[in-house]
TrEMBL record:
GO terms for biological process: DNA repair; DNA replication-dependent chromatin assembly; nucleosome assembly. This is CAF1B/HIR1 beta-propeller domain-containing protein. InterPro entries: Beta-prop_CAF1B_HIR1, PTHR15271, WD40/YVTN_repeat-like_dom_sf, WD40_G-protein_beta-like, WD40_repeat_CS, WD40_repeat_dom_sf, WD40_rpt. Gene3D superfamilies: YVTN repeat-like/Quinoprotein amine dehydrogenase. It holds the Pfam family Beta-prop_CAF1B_HIR1. It comes from Odynerus spinipes.
């Protein structure tokens, strides 16, 4: 296994860690369009709508949304060229927010865009079909017309993260007011308030199987909440971790997450697309009784056991901020290592650290690619296109980078729809039930600790590409029953560290909240490029 380093003219460094991808490396592109995305203010969030679309001229594009510190939400069309190049065009400027927009998320149904801001408001937007061009008060020509549908008010402080339910009828939001709120979007009101957190809720994720919600906050707790009861069924902030037999941390309890000293406002965690895994950023391996160098990490749990991680992915000197799973499943590499997690396919996911993007899959513990030196300041969010070939990264330096993969560069798409084996009805009512697969324990270096897979199961899956008709447009996807398999397992004793809320000391912490960034026009002369420039002198906050 060899590494392949490729430096772009901009100084960007790529590192590929398995041979399969090296022959395609020349087809991959990373571009950072020099446009004024949000009047050169920080770009705090980014998302790409499911599916791609066509213009009247037959040009295919992805619809993308960004939220910035200038209090605006912008809608973009992202075009990809045959030579793997990309261009973006701004088609709408949504101006109803009064403060910085921390998160933007399209609904799975593609009908609604949700955006949360520093004024504790969540705005739901809908696009009007077949509208003429609209000129905004700032004099910007909007080729798409998005109207405010509803405003969700219930938080008392900044909204940091949002996650949609798979049916697009509900969403969960996390806030600086130490709460996570479930919303019924059709009624426009709360359906539940989760208030057991003792710190800022900086990350939320809704289970694709619609059974749980996972949150991460500055009190160092990751919580798994049952949607039906609104009760926390599991929480973790410290545990033992899988280590080699002679490792100094063997059988020792370590803290797993950063406290309020974390160097970002966001901890964007996620469920995997099949709901099997929970992947959490802001990990830190901090022994309780020893003084050692503390490595940063990404922590991976099984949905059935949040008491102990099944994998720990070290990120060395950079803390991890945001995680997104590629919506496409890939075939297992025949010449690759034994899968870390026993699934019939590979799940690929991207991890944003402060200054790099790490791309992992579930077949190996080391990243399959590292993209670094693409921005001057820390990253804030990442998003995949629904075909898994475009990855977009946002940064506080005011720019976004677009990473475009060539066909099969990440692997062959998994399309074995008949691979479903004998299945049984599986219940997730008790999240403490853990099924561990039969497999030998293997270990890597001291910096890379892992535990062999828990929760061996296979879901009958269909690729997102099958949602595209032959002409490339979106078509409706039929609803399928989820079939799962559970096999006989070995008896393996897990070490739990049960802890109730009473064991957690309520401390008054000196936490510096995010400074409100005034929405003023930049005094610097805007960069003039052929693509688009948004630094209009007419734009001012209301």
């Amino acid at each position: 296994m060899r590494a392949y380093d490729h430096k772009l003219s901009t100084g960007t460094t790529w590192t590929w860690n398995h041979l399969e991808l090296t022959e395609h490396i020349g087809n991959m592109r990373c571009t950072t369009p020099e446009i004024s995305w949000h009047n050169r203010d920080p770009v705090l969030s980014i998302d790409i709508q499911n599916g791609f679309y066509e213009t009247s001229k037959g040009e295919r594009f992805w619809r993308m949304a960004t939220g910035g510190a200038d209090s605006h939400v912008l809608i973009w069309h992202l075009f990809t060229c045959e030579n793997n190049g990309t261009t973006v065009k701004c088609v709408a400027d949504l101006e109803r927010h009064q403060k910085a927009v921390n998160v933007v998320r399209f609904s799975p149904s593609k009908e609604i865009l949700a955006s949360g801001d520093d004024e504790s408001a969540i705005i739901l937007w809908k696009r009007k079909e077949d509208c003429d061009f609209f000129i905004s008060p700032d004099g910007i020509e909007n080729k798409e017309h998005w109207s405010l549908w509803k405003v969700l008010r219930g938080h008392l402080e900044d909204v940091y993260d949002i996650s949609w339910s798979p049916d697009s009828n509900s969403l969960i939001s996390g806030s600086v007011d130490n709460t996570a709120i479930l919303w019924d979007i059709h009624k426009g009101r709360t359906s539940g308030i989760l208030s057991d957190s003792k710190g800022f809720v900086q990350g939320v994720s809704w289970d694709p199987r619609n059974q749980y919600i996972c949150t991460i906050s500055t009190d160092r707790q990751c919580r798994l909440v049952d949607i039906s009861t609104k009760k926390t069924v599991q929480r973790v902030h410290k545990s033992t971790i899988p280590t080699p037999p002679d490792h100094p941390l063997k059988n020792k309890t370590v803290r797993l997450f950063y406290d309020d000293t974390f160097k970002s406002f966001f901890r964007r965690l996620t469920f995997s697309m099949d709901g099997t895994l929970i992947i959490v950023p802001s990990g830190i391996i901090e022994p309780q009784d020893t003084i050692e160098k503390i490595p940063n990490a990404t922590i991976i749990f099984s949905r059935h056991n949040l008491k102990e991680p099944i994998m720990i992915l070290p990120s060395l000197d950079e803390c991890t901020i945001a995680i997104r799973c590629c919506p496409i499943y890939f075939e297992l590499r025949k010449d690759g290592p034994t899968p870390i997690i026993t699934l019939p396919y590979r799940i690929v996911f991207a991890v944003a650290t402060q200054h790099s993007v790490l791309i992992y899959d579930t077949q190996q513990i080391s990243p399959i690619a590292v993209i670094s030196n693409i921005h001057y300041t820390r990253l804030t969010d990442i998003a995949w296109s629904s075909n898994g070939r475009v990855l977009v990264v946002s940064s506080t330096d005011g720019y976004c980078s677009i990473i475009h993969f060539s066909e099969n560069e990440l692997g062959n798409v998994y399309s074995n729809e008949d691979a479903a084996v004998t299945s049984i009805q599986f219940s997730d009512n008790n999240a403490m039930d853990v099924d561990l697969a039969k497999c030998k324990k293997t270990y890597t270096s001291d910096d890379q600790c892992k535990k062999t897979c828990s929760d061996k199961k296979a879901e009958e899956t269909k690729q997102n590409n099958s949602n595209l008709s032959k002409d490339g447009l979106i078509k409706d996807q039929p609803k399928n029953n989820i079939n799962e398999i559970v096999e006989e397992t070995e008896d393996i004793q897990l070490v739990y560290n049960e802890e109730s809320d009473n064991d957690i000391e309520a401390k008054s912490k000196n936490i510096t909240t995010k400074t409100n960034i005034p929405s003023t026009t930049s005094n610097k002369t805007p960069r003039r490029v052929k693509l688009i420039t948004l630094s209009s002198t007419k734009r001012k906050n209301k």
